[in-house]
Recover the amino acids of this structure.
């Protein structure tokens, strides 16, 4: 790894988008339209900017999302949440919400931020990253409040390996996770992932060991439409088998995994994203809601990482059964 | 700054959606009028009406203790009516004169403190049966079919409910449910479900009493827990520790609406947090609970959680789970002070 590459890499990762721009007054109209009626008709903002094809694509995304959500919800309702259709029906609902939210956020960001200010698609590069972080957790049920963690990620052309470990500073609680991702196709960003997690709650004498597999990927929206440059969306679905053990018992259970995110690229490989994760384990777990959706929903969160050269500063927040917030520092080196 | 503080408070508040109900539990069974104060031990009965000389309670357990504190000038003659009670329950008090008239008791209370005990003479029955019925919801129009089947078994002493009596938990719906209970030949002791949380604040405590409580009957301890928000509040978990201690030397049945962990894991019709669910189960296992009963899922599942026999029974008639071939049903449980016996499924629609 030489110094020239260290200088070139950030430049490659922060190429600005070069596309036709709209006048400022038209952009203001677009931004307003993206809110009203854009919140109801996704793509309205881009339509106001004269980007009709983009608008139609976003509206189609919204329509497909609504259809999937409705179909999945109907299947759950009519089946009485029977165990046979519950997994595909839930996947349909999550997929629908993913498409709906992505089309909405893409229309908002695409009309609010001029193309010249957006960063283009992230170039894939082999790299090694190591980092550490701290987290604050507020969970009314458990006593840990402060966690410290380390993580590492090795990214090669089609393989990613990631590991992380979190330890509570004020309680006997620690979590270790190993993940492996394999990009299945050269020209499609679809990855197969497997992961193993060990989470020990010392105070409660509980240990969770989880093995899981997922299929999903990150899709740069510029590949769908040039006017959606600088944005990405992620979606994945999977299944996990989890063993929870205690001195008095050991139970085996399953989890349906589902996650989606919407993000934007920033300078030098930096990015911000918001996400929904359907899993009910881990520090955030699921949302506590009253009424019909009690227990079903997972958690929401936001991640941000800002790179200055090879140094990254990260921020995170999650809300589920607990509030999790944290920041970290990482070092990234191209290979 | 104020907006940020409000946002933080609101966010943290949604981490404990059941705290208000846990605090409301503590007010159940307490009321005062003029110079007379009434208090039901452990909130095992709700005070429905209280006026000078008249008291009406809704029984939350087969037996409970009512304490009356009469100051000078307080009424001495009281008409006491107790709804939702065992037919053979009697009221006794060593310091008061009690007369049983039709559906009420006429109680003479002099100035001072009085301890009235209400319950059946055979509280320590050798063996008994109880039924388990939950998730009636929108099927209230046909609930009499279920009650008729329960009434057909004269050995059932009471019905235990694991919540979702109504569709939205409004006063009108809870009133309707109570009215229908008039045809059930035995009392119905129940906790609430997620569908009882439609109104804010929910009128549950004024009409049915505590959502989390514990009582003893026939040498068996019964503990009902509020898991209607897919969690059990930390305040209730503290009380649960005490109930588990009291029940450690006797058979112990625990019921709640939403199960800590759904046997169909991919559905997650259970607590929002798997870790919290496991923590609650570990408490029940350490407390040597013998049987756990749940509602929420409109079918019947028999399984084990934390080594404890478990039944999900949401057969009151609400939109049923398809493909399971079970339909409307209730459970009948044999119990005695030596242990929990059989748990049978009784189908309503054969």
């Amino acid at each position: 790894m030489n110094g020239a590459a260290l200088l070139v890499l950030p430049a490659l990762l922060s190429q600005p988008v070069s596309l036709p721009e709209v006048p400022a007054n038209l952009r203001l109209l677009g931004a307003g339209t993206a809110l009203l009626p854009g919140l109801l008709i996704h793509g309205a903002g881009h339509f106001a900017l004269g980007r009709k094809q983009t608008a139609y694509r976003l509206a189609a995304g919204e329509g497909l999302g609504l259809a999937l959500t409705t179909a999945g919800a109907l299947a759950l309702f009519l089946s009485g949440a029977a165990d046979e259709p519950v997994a595909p029906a839930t996947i349909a609902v999550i997929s629908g919400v993913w498409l709906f939210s992505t089309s909405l956020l893409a229309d908002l960001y695409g009309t609010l931020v001029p193309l010249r200010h957006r960063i283009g698609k992230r170039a894939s590069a082999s790299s090694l990253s190591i980092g550490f972080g701290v987290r604050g957790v507020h969970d009314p049920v458990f006593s840990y409040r402060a966690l410290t963690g380390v993580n590492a990620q090795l990214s090669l052309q089609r393989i990613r390996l990631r590991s992380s470990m979190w330890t509570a500073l004020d309680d006997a609680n620690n979590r270790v996770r190993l993940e492996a991702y394999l990009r299945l196709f050269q020209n499609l960003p679809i990855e197969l992932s497997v992961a193993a997690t060990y989470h020990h709650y010392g105070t409660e004498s509980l240990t969770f060991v989880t093995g899981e597999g997922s299929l999903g990927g990150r899709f740069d929206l510029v590949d769908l439409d040039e006017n959606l440059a600088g944005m990405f969306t992620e979606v994945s679905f999977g299944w996990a088998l989890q063993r929870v053990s205690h001195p008095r018992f050991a139970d085996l259970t399953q989890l349906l995994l589902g996650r989606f995110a919407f993000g934007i690229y920033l300078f030098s490989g930096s990015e911000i994203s918001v996400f929904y994760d359907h899993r009910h384990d881990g520090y955030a777990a699921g949302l506590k809601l009253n009424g019909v959706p009690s227990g079903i929903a997972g958690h929401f969160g936001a991640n941000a990482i800002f790179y200055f050269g090879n140094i990254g500063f990260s921020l995170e927040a999650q809300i589920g059964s607990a509030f999790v917030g944290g920041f970290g520092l990482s070092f990234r080196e191209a290979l | 700054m104020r907006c940020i503080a409000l946002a933080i408070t609101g966010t943290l508040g949604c981490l404990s959606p059941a705290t208000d109900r846990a605090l409301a539990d503590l007010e159940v069974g307490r009321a005062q009028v003029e110079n007379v104060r009434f208090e039901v031990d452990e909130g095992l009965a709700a005070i429905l009406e209280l006026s000078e000389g008249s008291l009406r309670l809704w029984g939350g357990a087969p037996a409970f203790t009512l304490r009356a504190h009469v100051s000078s000038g307080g009424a001495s003659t009281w008409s006491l009516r107790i709804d939702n009670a065992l037919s053979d329950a009697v009221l006794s008090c060593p310091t008061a004169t009690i007369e049983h008239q039709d559906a009420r008791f006429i109680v003479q209370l002099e100035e001072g403190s009085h301890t009235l005990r209400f319950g059946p003479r055979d509280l320590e029955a050798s063996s008994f049966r109880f039924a388990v019925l939950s998730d009636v919801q929108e099927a209230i129009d046909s609930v009499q079919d279920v009650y008729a089947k329960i009434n057909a078994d004269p050995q059932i002493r009471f019905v235990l409910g694991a919540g979702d009596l109504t569709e939205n938990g409004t006063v009108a719906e809870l009133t309707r449910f109570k009215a229908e209970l008039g045809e059930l030949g035995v009392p119905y002791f129940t906790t609430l479900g997620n569908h009882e949380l439609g109104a804010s604040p929910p009128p549950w405590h004024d009409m049915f009493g505590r959502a989390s409580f514990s009582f003893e009957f026939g040498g068996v301890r019964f503990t009902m827990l509020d898991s209607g928000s897919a969690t059990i509040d930390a305040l209730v978990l503290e009380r649960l520790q005490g109930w588990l201690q009291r029940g450690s030397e006797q058979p112990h049945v625990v019921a709640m609406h939403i199960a800590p962990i759904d046997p169909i894991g991919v559905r997650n019709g259970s607590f929002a947090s798997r870790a919290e669910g496991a923590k609650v189960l570990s408490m029940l296992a350490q407390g040597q609970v013998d049987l756990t009963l749940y509602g929420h899922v409109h079918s019947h599942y028999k399984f084990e959680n934390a080594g404890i026999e478990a039944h999900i029974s949401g057969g009151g008639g609400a939109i049923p789970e398809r493909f399971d071939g079970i339909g409307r049903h209730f459970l009948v449980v044999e119990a005695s002070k030596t242990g929990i016996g059989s748990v049978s499924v009784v189908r309503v629609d054969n």
